[in-house]
Amino acid sequence: MKQVELDKLDQRILAVLQQDGRISNQQLAEQIGLSPAACWRRVRTLEETGVITGYSAQLAPERIGQGLCVLVNLSLQRHTIDSTAEIEQQVSSYPEVLQCFAVTGNADFVLRVIVPDMASYDRFLNEKIFTLQGIAQVNSNFSLREIKNTQTIPVGSVE
């Protein structure tokens, strides 16, 4: 996918929206130093070009009974396009999997899984992960505490 060129105003818009996606266009325009119409056009262009992919609420997992975070390393028996695609499709369909990365190193995939407790994670492994065809090894790393968790992407040298 082609990289989009961002000027300083676009970078400032993105920085503000990453901190407060619910800010009004009027407030955003005032912070950036643009007219509301010009600000709206820029935000719309950032959305249409795929720079902004959506807006969402950030939740505290432990406050809604989803307090166990597990980083799961999956290693495959074989590396074929079909088997890898099937695993990617299956894993992507599991609501417990918040993130899935194809990686290099000691594993082929790293999953970030959120579940209520250890019994739920045991069920997730037995009913979902262990039923996948082609998995050679599963290693689980349990999060003791969260140090940093952000979706904010640095966008140039924003003042």
UniProtKB/TrEMBL annotation:
<dbReference type="InterPro" id="IPR036390">
    <property type="entry name" value="WH_DNA-bd_sf"/>
</dbReference>
<dbReference type="GO" id="GO:0043200">
    <property type="term" value="P:response to amino acid"/>
</dbReference>
<dbReference type="InterPro" id="IPR036388">
    <property type="entry name" value="WH-like_DNA-bd_sf"/>
</dbReference>
<dbReference type="InterPro" id="IPR011991">
    <property type="entry name" value="ArsR-like_HTH"/>
</dbReference>
<dbReference type="Pfam" id="PF13412">
    <property type="entry name" value="HTH_24"/>
</dbReference>
<dbReference type="GO" id="GO:0043565">
    <property type="term" value="F:sequence-specific DNA binding"/>
</dbReference>
<dbReference type="InterPro" id="IPR019887">
    <property type="entry name" value="Tscrpt_reg_AsnC/Lrp_C"/>
</dbReference>
<dbReference type="InterPro" id="IPR000485">
    <property type="entry name" value="AsnC-type_HTH_dom"/>
</dbReference>
<dbReference type="Pfam" id="PF01037">
    <property type="entry name" value="AsnC_trans_reg"/>
</dbReference>
<dbReference type="GO" id="GO:0006355">
    <property type="term" value="P:regulation of DNA-templated transcription"/>
</dbReference>
<dbReference type="InterPro" id="IPR019888">
    <property type="entry name" value="Tscrpt_reg_AsnC-like"/>
</dbReference>
<keyword id="KW-0238">DNA-binding</keyword>
<keyword id="KW-0804">Transcription</keyword>
<protein>
    <submittedName>
        <fullName>Transcriptional regulator, AsnC family</fullName>
    </submittedName>
</protein>
<dbReference type="InterPro" id="IPR019885">
    <property type="entry name" value="Tscrpt_reg_HTH_AsnC-type_CS"/>
</dbReference>
<dbReference type="InterPro" id="IPR011008">
    <property type="entry name" value="Dimeric_a/b-barrel"/>
</dbReference>
<feature type="domain" description="HTH asnC-type">
    <location>
        <begin position="6"/>
        <end position="67"/>
    </location>
</feature>
<keyword id="KW-0805">Transcription regulation</keyword>
<dbReference type="GO" id="GO:0005829">
    <property type="term" value="C:cytosol"/>
</dbReference>
